[in-house]
Write a structure and sequence with these properties.
Helices cover about 15% and strands about 40% of the residues. It has about 260 residues and is mainly beta. It is globular, with a radius of gyration of 37 Å.
């Protein structure tokens, strides 16, 4: 065979090898479904999805100002987990409503979960620790009530925004409204005396000078039958609002809300 014939045969074999390699590299060569689809070029494209998944976004959420819980059984609050007693908690308030406490935190100590709570006892601003088993489920609020004794004004915050503001009457100099951190303990209506107005809130604050009063001199937030005295220093320690204002507040203020008196 001549040299030209050898070159022709070699060139033919090279072309055949290249064609076979290209066939192997085609996707349908390894995918039977792709081969089947390749044989049906006339079919329409499949239906489009009903919706397209967008980029994930964070959901808006309110600011949790506090959590509170009910007292499930009588229990002694301690200065620390396993410490000395600082006050006793019952299941009911002096007004006959379910007793509740503001939760400040919790820890595990020797296999028991202890909850740090704010207590409705004297001296004001006392806190204590109780076993988690003595308490009910947690509830959450995003409201915070603030009473300014100097400006004679009450402000309700919700989710970091002011939603209510009104003038108030507070304690006389000899019967001062206590300052500190407290909470709204209950809400009461239906008073026979117009002195308290249409709605009253019980708080965990207590008068430090009227301890002999019934039930220990707890500070309330209520309406009045003398709106002309507000704002002013006119009470025995309670916080008075005009009736129209206490009714507005009652629509906005849930029990368990923190109360700051400054």
């Amino acid at each position: 065979m001549t040299r030209r014939g050898v070159l022709r045969i070699g060139f033919t074999l090279l072309l055949a090898a290249a064609a076979f390699l290209a066939l192997l590299l085609r996707p349908e060569a390894h995918n039977p479904r792709a081969r089947s689809e390749a044989q049906l070029p006339g079919l329409d494209a499949g239906p489009q999805p009903a919706f397209a998944v967008g980029q994930p976004q964070l959901l808006g959420r309110g600011t949790v100002a506090a959590r509170w819980t009910t007292v499930g059984r009588p229990v002694m609050a301690l200065r620390g987990p396993g410490g000395i007693p600082v006050g006793r908690l019952g299941t009911s308030t002096p007004e006959g409503t379910t007793n509740l406490v503001l939760v400040l935190g919790s820890v595990w100590h020797r296999g028991v979960e202890w909850v740090h709570v704010r207590l409705p006892v004297l001296p004001n601003n006392t806190t204590g620790w109780v076993p988690r088993s003595a308490l009910g489920g947690y509830h959450f609020v995003s409201t915070h009530l603030v009473v300014d004794l100097r400006r004679l004004r009450v402000t309700l915050w919700r989710d970091g925004h002011v939603v209510f503001r009104a003038p108030v009457g507070v304690g006389q100099p000899q019967y001062p409204t206590p300052r500190g951190e407290f909470y709204i303990r209950d809400e009461l209506t239906g008073y026979a005396s117009p002195f308290y107005g249409p709605v009253a809130f019980g708080t965990s604050a207590r008068s430090a000078v009227l301890t002999e009063w019934p039930d220990g001199g707890f500070v309330g937030i209520h309406g009045t039958d003398e709106p002309g005295l507000i704002p002013g220093r006119v009470s025995h320690g309670c916080i008075r609002l005009r009736n129209r204002d206490i009714l507005r507040l009652a629509r906005l203020l849930p029990v368990g809300s923190p109360l700051t008196i400054t």
